[in-house]
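Model it.
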Amino acid sequence: MTERPSRFGAATLARFRPAGTQGHRHLLTGSAVLVVGAAIQALSGAVFWLIAARLDAEHVVGAGGKLFTSVLFVTYLAGLGLPVSLARYAAGRDADSDTTFTWAVLATIVSSLVFGFAYVGLLHGSATGLLTDVNPVLGPLLFAVIVVGAALSLIVDVRCMTARRWNLVLVRISLVGLARFPLLFLFQHVSDDHRSFWLFVAATGPMAISGVIGALWVPRVADGRHRLGPKPDRTDAAIRYSAVNYLSTLAYQAPYFLLPVIVLANVTDNAYASFNVAWGIVAVAFYVPTAIGQALLAEGGKDGAHVHHQLRLAMWLALALMVAGTVVVFLGNDVITSVYGAEYHKAADILPAMVAAGIPWAITSLYLSEVRILHRNLATVAITAALTIGIVAPALVLVPDDGLDGAKVAWLAGNMAAAVVAIVAVQISRARNGLDPALDEPGAAEDAAEVGIELAEHL
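Modeled.
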């Protein structure tokens, strides 16, 4: 049984703690919880698609995976910049935060329905034909409702994070992962003509339900309730911030959501099944720096935060995790064919390079969090434009001719180019604003010491 540190031990550790570290405990705790959540999501997702690959033919898994990817893409379009805005303008336990969150819920529902139905209409046949094959009305309606729930789950997590109820984020992710498996077997006996559709429902339904339930209940975690008024004083600022960051979010997340859509529009269902296996692992790996960056955004946006010190802590953690993950994937990518079967060999071929792209992505995403917190709009635009152009433009050229290999090259090269631009943009931004974080904050060695002390206290 693990014992708590003695008072003497705690006092000794505190004596060596760099000044000002108490204010960063929430950043470390939140990042750790979200990384654990990413691991749970990775394991549950990998097992889910593994079982699906064993139960159904490759083309069935590929067609279901295309619909799953479509939900993620439309959810990204429907976000309206609200997850970022709520982290800054609905971070308190007060009536203004409750009102801002309530209107965010309503805006998310409307945008999700609009984008959901529009996507079905525009991409009918290549990705969403299964929906109308099941039912011309109910199929697209269910797709739009699932998008609503998925989009709500994003702002629910942000509300929990700003209330420092990180455990609730972990619980939601865990329940979603577990709830998929009974549905997978429940829908196993449906008609062969509709198996891909019900595979899609099993993959996305629990996530959507968690978002709807969470949106109804989550204000209570901050001792509040849903409110439509009075209008918060910072409403106009929050709307402007959402609009700016919506465009920014569309830009910097465009490669993550557009690349799978480009692939699904240009490859067969069988090929997409392999891509979906690899992409599921890549997506979770990339979620790690994203989650750490979201924690940085939530904590760095609070009054009195030491942004540059928090950034260094976050960067140490994200880079260490991504390097470790890349090494593991390079050494063990053959496991995919051993587990999924030889027909999924393309997943094993493209996976190492695509996961390695997470190392430059860690740099890009965390520097982007810094410039967002500090409202450095020019640097934000430069970083997001480099990321989008660097990945999407090559993908549009390479994927139609080279398929999955083209997607791999575009993904790795684009992330490397974006990281270089992020480093240069942040340095220029700091120089123009007369900022030298090293003048009044602990350095890199002290950051490492702090991380070690934090870990020691949890043992």
